[in-house]
Amino acid sequence: MKASSDKLYGTPYESAPSLRVGATRSGSATVVTVAGEIDMYSARELELALTGHVSSGAGVVVVDLDGVSFLGSVGLAVLHQAAVGAADQGVALHLAVTTKVVTRALDVSGLTQEFSLHRSVQEAVAHGDRGRAPLPVSERRS
């Protein structure tokens, strides 16, 4: 029998098997595709991916969240920090999202206006190709 410290609420700890993060190029943008659950177990993987792509010198980073089936508060914090970091580095960060799971989490958290949201990756890439990096989150007016 395993010690109780090996379990959380009766289930074994898992190391983020439910999150998949990949990246491709589309024009001048880096498109980061995210699928699965973004929770306290998987958020670090997303954080590392976004930080890496933002600091890689890409002028535009598009995060495709249409494959996300759960977005917890830790995931929202990772996205917010990525937006702040991108703005500080002069990188335009855009979110492509149409799913209710993600839009509801952004709405409920009050973070919707903190991001450049788009209905598709193509729209986000097109906007990013012709736009410049938005103001840092801390400098935006409500």
TrEMBL record:
<dbReference type="Pfam" id="PF01740">
    <property type="entry name" value="STAS"/>
</dbReference>
<protein>
    <recommendedName>
        <fullName>Anti-sigma factor antagonist</fullName>
    </recommendedName>
</protein>
<dbReference type="InterPro" id="IPR036513">
    <property type="entry name" value="STAS_dom_sf"/>
</dbReference>
<dbReference type="InterPro" id="IPR003658">
    <property type="entry name" value="Anti-sigma_ant"/>
</dbReference>
<feature type="domain" description="STAS">
    <location>
        <begin position="19"/>
        <end position="128"/>
    </location>
</feature>
<dbReference type="InterPro" id="IPR002645">
    <property type="entry name" value="STAS_dom"/>
</dbReference>
<comment type="similarity">
    <text>Belongs to the anti-sigma-factor antagonist family.</text>
</comment>
